[in-house]
Amino acid sequence: MEMHAFGTLNYIVLLVYLAAIMLVGVYFARRQKSADDYFKAGGRIPGWAAGISVFATTLSSITFMSIPAKAYTGDWTFLIGQYIAILILPFVFMYYIPFFRKLNLTSAYEYLEKRFDIKMRLFASISFMLFHIGRIAIITYLTALALIPFIDINPLTIVFLIGVLCIIYTFMGGIEGVIWTDVIQGIMLSVAAVMIFVMICFNVDGGMTEIFSMSAQADKYFPSEKFAWSWSESTIPVLMIGFLFASLQQFTASQDVVQRYIVTDSIDETKKALVTNAKLVACIPVFFFAVGAALYAYYTQNPSLLPEDFNTGGILPFFVISQMPAGIAGLIIAAIFAASQSSISSSLNSISACFTSDIYNRLGTTKTPEENLKVGRIVTVLAGVFGVLASTYLIMSNESELWDAFNSLIGLMGGPMTGLFMLGVFVRRANANSALAGVVAAVASVLWVRSTTDLNFFFYGVIGTLVVVIVGYLTAPLFKNTHAKEEIEALTIQGQN
């Protein structure tokens, strides 16, 4: 594999970006006077900024690089998932956001204690924290792994630049700093995708028309065979179902996204956040797939530019480093760092919010806002250090095949968490013990399916969610509900269940 010198100008651009992000954290550090500032930004975030933050949070650097690679080697079928995510947003706004806003939650999992009991709150919160520490490690590791073959930067340096600097600005700026850096990073990602596509268009004989024509001739959009049903392959029907439940998990049960619902000063601003996110999701991912199509056309016309036995998973950074002008290449690599950091910083602040709200505040006497702020910052650092150490271990041990295995575990914990919120919001007869029975059954079911069948991992979240709801509903009459009727009605959707 050919190694390309990153170049002085590219280094300057990358370092300027990293310095700018650090300055954002420094600027917002002066506003962090209490836990409410650190985790909720005092309600000062405008809806459009919260929406860009949601978009940037859910789009990691791995997505930024893997979607063009998927369109290059395969087809566009995964684009379906982006629009499924848009379709569930009205449902989220109608049924979930009113609860989160009305209860003035710091951690989304506070709802589960109010609706069920402390066991359900701790299960969901601890599952979220462990998952996101692992996610920090995986995103950092795979970002470094993707860049190593193409730029002359030591992988541990990449881990440091992504992880340690992210810890610092998240520690200083809290959720307000995280969201405003997300805005910068989200814009960088969008501009980078458009910039790459336009630049390739100028380098392909026949331009944009030829790019889309070549993909059509190769049947690289939505091949007819992908519309068939399959239990083991990621065909379009499977993707639609899988992304539906994955999006539900992300927008109803994941603290890093749910936290954006409470950083604005009104429910109307929260609505603007979802609308802004929907607009971005509708437009920007198309450019990522278009970049893959453009790369396919470019390297089909110029096959000699690809090294022998090239790993096409790194096609995007390879093109950026080898073909784009100095300075512009540095800006694109900075965008890859941005995608990684936006996901990691959100995870850090959300882990801190969960630990402080769900665990620390429940120990001993009532804590002051200043004590919560101090603990929140300490947890931010510890979570980041654990994530960086784990990613360093993965690099040193040269682990492989982690991302698919990690994605499959989303269904193990994410599915039951989604089911818990769904059970609580929609099933009035459900109680703490029936919810526990549902969670145990769901985890056991997903583990059994994962170990004994070749079922596609997109179904894991479906199984985890539905088993919690079904078992929680059926077993509810077996247990006494300890909550008053009025309390249950205030925490559920009105209607007969």
UniProtKB/TrEMBL annotation:
GO biological process: sodium ion transport
InterPro entries in the record: Na/Glc_symporter_sf (IPR038377), Na/solute_symporter (IPR001734), Sodium:Solute_Symporter_SSF (IPR051163)
Subcellular location field: Cell membrane
One function term, GO molecular function aspect: symporter activity
GO CC field: plasma membrane
Keywords, alphabetical: Cell membrane, Ion transport, Membrane, Sodium, Sodium transport, Transmembrane, Transmembrane helix, Transport
Topology with respect to the bilayer: Multi-pass membrane protein
UniProt-listed CDD domains: SLC5sbd_NIS-like_u3
Transmembrane segments: 6-28, 48-67, 79-101, 122-150, 156-175, 187-208, 228-246, 280-299, 319-339, 375-396, 408-427, 434-451, 457-476
Family of the protein in this entry: Belongs to the sodium:solute symporter (SSF) (TC 2.A.21) family.
Name the UniProt record assigns to this protein: Acetylneuraminate ABC transporter
Organism: Photobacterium proteolyticum
